[in-house]
Design brief:
Elements lengths: L1 H7 L2 H26 L15 E3 L19 E6 L7 H10 L13 E3 L5 E3 L17 E6 L10 H18 L3 H4 E3 H5 L5 H5 L1 H24 L2
Parallel strand pairs: 1-4, 2-5, 2-6, 3-5
Antiparallel strand pairs: 3-4
Helix pairs in contact: 4-8
Bound molecules: zinc ion.
Length: about 220
């Protein structure tokens, strides 16, 4: 009986089944890689929050090399180290490096100003020159500060929490593990205040976690 049934199978039907099975396997594989791995970039399609003003640097070897940022596995927080300067002034400084006369490599994806304004200098699809060995897998945020202590004022701090939480959500990062200081990469005293006072840094991470949880809860109650 089995023998007869086998002989009646239409070869076209067999081929069709094989093709369907292969397609299903491919769809499942893509789905799993999206679910699991994906801290990698779909950044082309990502639209940044409304409070971010894009003012991209000119592509140049010193501050915007145009190198693809192929994966985002962390966020690195910096302070500008230049008390009282604005986000625009810091963005313009990065732009000025493009002349090459200073022979300084520096930039950042975002600069947060004293009023909580945010300027994006480099697209999320490209690396910035901010975090040394982590340039190739992180997003950088430079924060302006009113004085030499490097403490962030309330407006800049709150915005930094908000933007960092947004990045964590977009790129599936964990604040406690994936949000780091420049200090954690190279030992540089940056962001100064949050290196000198580790409790202040812990408290920043806790605020980011709370903002992230609130955003996730919000999206669940209003899908
Ligand atoms: Zn730094």
């Amino acid at each position: 009986m089995d023998h007869c049934r086998k002989r009646r199978l239409n070869p076209r039907f067999v081929i069709l089944c094989a093709v369907l099975a292969a397609l299903t396997a491919a769809v499942i594989a893509v789905g799993i890689s999206k679910l699991l791995g994906d801290r990698a970039l779909p950044a082309e399609e990502i639209s940044v929050p409304d409070y971010v003003e894009k003012d991209y640097l000119t592509v140049n070897e010193w501050s915007r090399p145009g190198t693809p940022l192929e994966k985002i596995q962390g966020v690195v927080i910096h302070y500008v180290g230049n008390p009282g300067t604005t986000a625009q002034a810091n963005r313009n400084y990065f732009e000025s490096l493009s002349s090459g006369t200073e022979e300084v490599y520096a930039s950042s994806h975002f600069v947060i100003g004293l009023e909580g304004e945010v300027i994006q200098c480099v697209p999320l699809t490209e690396i910035a020159y901010a975090s040394n060995s982590r340039n190739d897998d992180t997003v950088s945020i430079e924060v302006c500060h009113p004085d030499e202590t490097g403490v962030f004022n309330d407006a800049a701090y709150d915005r930094c929490v908000e933007l960092t939480a947004w990045l964590c959500r977009e790129f599936r990062l964990k604040p406690e593990e994936d949000v780091i200081r420049h200090y954690d990469v190279t030992g540089k005293l940056c962001p100064l205040y949050y290196v000198e006072d580790p409790a202040a840094w812990e408290s920043f991470l806790a605020d980011v976690s709370e903002a992230l949880a609130a955003a996730e809860e919000e999206s669940q109650s209003h899908p």
